């Protein structure tokens, strides 16, 4: 169920936390019953990440941060193959206790687990890539802007923030009453990035997803003051 162009003050962090506390710690659970798209999703993200890591001013591969990590699906299948270490942020205790077992043999490459909501998370300045996927819809606009500013300040030289999120086709925001989340329009995301003093290095639409679900876009963001050129990035 969704409401068009709603007041985002209707988002409730408590309701969202309660919703996720009842969700099983499985791939199908964290993907809302769409576990079958996981491999396609990871492949699209891999191509996007490799384009960032091969650009002229590429981020290093020392440490990545997986935000709203769930059971560690992205940590295991996307970030650990490319980075020496990965930190994880996840507010649900059930999920965070599952991560190391889910990751398996490479769990020694997980450095720090932060059990906290993104609205309260304050990362330190040490990250090469900060990955946010299917989680920013749980933040109020003002909290999202503040969070992205904190992420911006936590980037090392040539560091990149990645946002991969659903985007509405209606051009308006739509609320999901079930989990107390919002799906934003492309223009709303662009406005939020600008207010967060971030600019796009790259923007790409996920391909090969089934019909009937929201379009999914990936954005690579860097601080506005950095001397980057989007032409540096080639897929």
Automatic annotation (TrEMBL):
Any single GO CC term annotated in Swiss-Prot or TrEMBL for this entry: cytoplasm
Q: Which reaction does this enzyme catalyse, per its entry?
A: N-terminal L-prolyl-L-prolyl-L-lysyl-[protein] + 2 S-adenosyl-L-methionine = N-terminal N,N-dimethyl-L-prolyl-L-prolyl-L-lysyl-[protein] + 2 S-adenosyl-L-homocysteine + 2 H(+); N-terminal L-alanyl-L-prolyl-L-lysyl-[protein] + 3 S-adenosyl-L-methionine = N-terminal N,N,N-trimethyl-L-alanyl-L-prolyl-L-lysyl-[protein] + 3 S-adenosyl-L-homocysteine + 3 H(+); N-terminal L-seryl-L-prolyl-L-lysyl-[protein] + 3 S-adenosyl-L-methionine = N-terminal N,N,N-trimethyl-L-seryl-L-prolyl-L-lysyl-[protein] + 3 S-adenosyl-L-homocysteine + 3 H(+)
One Pfam family, please name it.
Answer: Methyltransf_PK
Q: What class of enzyme is it?
A: transferase
Keyword annotations for this protein?
Answer: Methyltransferase, S-adenosyl-L-methionine, Transferase
* Family as reported in the entry's similarity comment: Belongs to the methyltransferase superfamily. NTM1 family.
Name used for this protein in its record: Alpha N-terminal protein methyltransferase 1
Species of provenance: Bombyx mandarina (Wild silk moth)
What broad taxonomic lineage does this protein's source fall under? Eukaryota, Metazoa, Ecdysozoa, Arthropoda, Hexapoda
């Amino acid at each position: 169920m969704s409401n068009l162009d709603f007041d985002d003050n209707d988002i409730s962090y408590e309701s969202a936390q309660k919703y996720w506390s009842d969700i099983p710690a499985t791939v199908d659970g964290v993907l809302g019953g769409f576990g079958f798209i996981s491999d396609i999703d990871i492949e699209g993200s891999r191509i996007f990440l490799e384009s960032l890591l091969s650009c002229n001013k590429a981020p290093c591969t020392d440490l990545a941060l997986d935000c709203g990590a769930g059971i560690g699906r992205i940590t295991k299948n996307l970030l650990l193959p490319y980075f020496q270490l990965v930190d994880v942020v996840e507010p649900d205790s059930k999920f965070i206790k599952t991560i190391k077992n889910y990751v398996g043999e490479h769990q020694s490459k997980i450095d720090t687990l932060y059990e906290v909501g993104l609205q309260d998370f304050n990362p330190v300045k040490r990250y090469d890539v900060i990955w946010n996927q299917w989680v920013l819809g749980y933040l109020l606009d003002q909290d999202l802007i503040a969070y992205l500013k904190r992420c911006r300040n936590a980037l090392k030289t040539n560091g990149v923030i990645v946002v991969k999120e659903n985007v509405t086709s209606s051009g308006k925001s739509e609320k999901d009453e079930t989990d107390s989340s919002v799906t934003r329009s492309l223009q709303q995301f662009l406005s939020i990035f600008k207010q967060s003093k971030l600019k796009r290095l790259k923007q790409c639409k996920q391909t090969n997803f089934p019909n009937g679900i929201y379009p999914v876009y990936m954005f690579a963001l860097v601080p506005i003051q950095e001397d980057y050129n989007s032409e540096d990035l080639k897929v």
